[in-house]
Structures are given as C-alpha cells and as structure tokens.
Design brief:
The chain is α/β, with parallel strands linked by helices. The chain has a single domain, classed as 3-Layer(aba) Sandwich (Arginase, Chain A). The chain contains eleven helices and eight strands. An eight-stranded parallel sheet has the order 2-1-3-8-7-4-5-6, sandwiched between helices. Helix 10 links the parallel strand 7 and strand 8. Helix 2 packs across helix 11, helix 4 packs parallel to helix 5 and helix 5 packs parallel to helix 6. It is globular, with a radius of gyration of 19 Å. It binds manganese (II) ion. Manganese (II) ion binds next to loops.
Amino acid sequence: MPYTGLFRSKQEDIFKPWCIERLQFVSNYISPINPDMAAPRYSGLATFMRAPIAQTLENIDIGMVGIPYDGALTNRPGARHGPREVRNQSSLMRAINHATRINPYDLCRIADVGDVQFHSVFDIEETHKDISDFIEVMVAAGVMPLSCGGDHSISLPIMRAVTTQPMAFIHIDAHTDTWDSFQGSKFNHGAPFRRAHEEGLIDATKTVQIGIRGAQNISEGWDYSEAAGMRVMFVEEVQKRGVDSIIEETRNIVGDTPVYLSFDIDSIDPAFAPGTGTPEIAGLTTPEAMALIRGFRNLNYVGADMVEVSPPFDVGGVTSLTGATVMYELLCLLAESVSAR
Ligand SMILES: [Mn+2]
C-alpha cells in the first residue's frame, strides 16, 4: 500500500527527478541477477548481504525482508533494531559458501525488499496483520520470504501468509515458544508456535524444536509441545548425540513436506551471541549452528526467518554478525530449494 502522508508527498516533488535518475543508474550496474559483489564491502548503502534494493517484486525469487518490531517481548528489549544492524554486519557476507560451494546468486534472483511498514505499533495484533499483509503480497508475486526480526512473535503472521495447510517446521531456539498468554496477550513472543499449532499452520508430528534449555517458572511450554506431538530436543541431547544424528532424525521427521525454518539467535550460546532478549547459557556453538543449518539442505522450503537479535545488548556487533551469517546460510538453503523446482 503506497504511503500517502504529508512528508512523502512533499519529498516526491523535491526528489523525484533525482531519484529516477539515480535508480536508473543503480539498475544499470546491479540487479537481482547480478549483485554488486565486486564493490568494496564497506561501501554503499547497507542492504541485506549487499543485495540490490527491490523497486518492485517482479523478477525476484527470494526477498530478504526486515521486520523491525519488538512490541511482543517479555524481557529485554531492542530486537526492533535488529534488521538495521544485521543489514550493516551482513555487508561482510560474500557469495560462495565455502562448505557447500553454493552461490545463491547463481541459483536465484535475490533482493532486499525493505522493511514491513507498520501503522499501529502499539497494537500487537494490528502489527501482525501488517506483517501478514506484506508477506502475502510477496508470496502472491512468487517471492519466497527470508525475514529478519524483530521478536519471535513475527513468525506467526509470516506463517499465516505462507501456507494454508499444516507445514513441517524446523525450530532452532532456546525456548519452545509454545507458552500461552503473558500479561493479557496470547500473541507475545513466547507463544507464536502454540498459536500456529492451534491455527493449523504447523503439523506437530512434523515439528522439531532444537536447542531447548533454560529454567522456567512453569513447564507449560515444554508440556504443550510434547503433548501436541512435537519432537522437542533439549540442548543436552543435541550435545550428547552430536549434530549429525540430530540432522538425520529431523530430516526423517520433516520428509518432503513443505517446511518453514525459524532460527532464534538465542539458540546460540550467549558467549557467541549475547545481544538478545532472553539469553540462556550452555547453548549451541556457532560451529554447531552452521553444521545444523547445512544439514537441512534440499528440503521443501516455503520460507525462513532469523529473529531476536537485540543490538543494544550486543558487544562489538558479534551477535548481528552471527545473525547475518545465519541469514546467509538460510539464503543458501532457500536458493537451492527454489532452484530445484
Ligand atoms: Mn524464540
């Protein structure tokens, strides 16, 4: 929906001719097909992975989208600043994956499609509607969403937009996020996958939750997941069995069912990723996280997200860099999946 506010209309008068000239210049040397990987990585506007900024949704296979919302948090704030800082750190990313040799830009047309715009950020459900509306437009245009949060509540409206059937679900997180209401809202960031299950968006028997840990005051979330039939893998099981075994079991559960992958940065140990709202020690290492993601190649993806990076709690940008790298690895998964169709 075009923004028709006072400031935009005045700006258009001033900047429109300049903008058109500039955009034509930019489109001459970068496009979703040919990202400008040769330019110095510290130069230019910081888009996700230095991918071009989309002016339309035409001719794009995968759209990276920022969802700067943290109004559903239950603890430390700041995830609203995640997309901007992840874009900044993602300037360090390059094209070819050293482990898999996937070059996502060879496989797909990839762009930064900007941020979801909100019209009522003090209302969780209205904001979730804005998110669903945005992602629905992408899906209708044939653009697969790779989203950057934002708190974890944003995954629910994304799921509403990407499927009408119960999907398989790979959920990497310290928390099951299947708790119920908190402070009067059942859409808080500890509840999205309980709601997704209730709404028929995910198939519990094809849902795997990996990296779960941290003491709780009540066991409601863990209990809900297990009673629903989700496979809950606490972090000690992951550490004891090793990631290869976890990957094998997860792949068997998911099969070729359309699958959504959600990666909460708090799944990773706060030694590697301290900038997040609900840190829990003794988590996944970054090598374990990379190996896990790369173990989930060639599944039938409908989208993915990386959430809960909180730059105000970060140290030297390490969490945003980790989040950006997770997004790059997810981009490789989605690109391979899209190009196989
Ligand atoms: Mn979470």
